[in-house]
Design brief:
With 138 residues, the protein is α/β, with parallel strands linked by helices. Strands 1-3-2-4-5 form a five-stranded mixed beta sheet, sandwiched between helices.
């Protein structure tokens, strides 16, 4: 796939995600498969989950809202194999700084509390899923 084709694909998926996000209300995305991480529980979540994907996000971030449904879908699809958590960077700036999160959304994949991969930006579900599968060797 050429760079131009990839860009067109990303633009198409971004439009689809945006349409999906704007059609949902805030309660539509709540799911028990995704943990809400914060400064009080982050270290426990990190150490208690052998395979963990953390979504660093903020309320005002439209790309974060675009990938939010993807996080919940993947959490359901990988339940029992990978745990997912979301961390609001505005409410938890120390943790974001600890992991050098400079742009959001940022997804960091941890295995046994060690960062093994990261994705920055709103990318299509297929791309994110491939990276998760590669990182955790599925």
């Amino acid at each position: 796939m050429s760079d131009e084709e990839l860009e067109k694909f990303k633009e198409k998926k971004t439009r689809e995600l945006l349409k999906n996000v704007l059609s949902k209300g805030p309660s539509d995305s709540m799911d028990a498969n995704v943990l809400e991480a914060n400064e009080r529980n982050f270290n426990r979540i990190l150490t208690e989950n052998a395979r963990l994907v953390v979504d660093f996000w903020a309320h005002w971030c439209m790309p974060c809202k675009m990938i939010e449904p993807i996080i919940y879908e993947l959490a359901e699809a990988y339940a029992g194999r990978v745990r997912f958590a979301r961390l609001n960077v505005d409410s938890n700036p120390e943790i974001a700084a600890r992991f050098d999160v400079m742009s959001i959304p940022t997804l960091i994949m941890f295995e046994n509390a060690v960062e093994i991969d990261r994705i920055v930006g709103a990318l299509p579900k297929e791309f994110i899923e491939r990276r998760i599968m590669k990182a955790f060797r599925f």
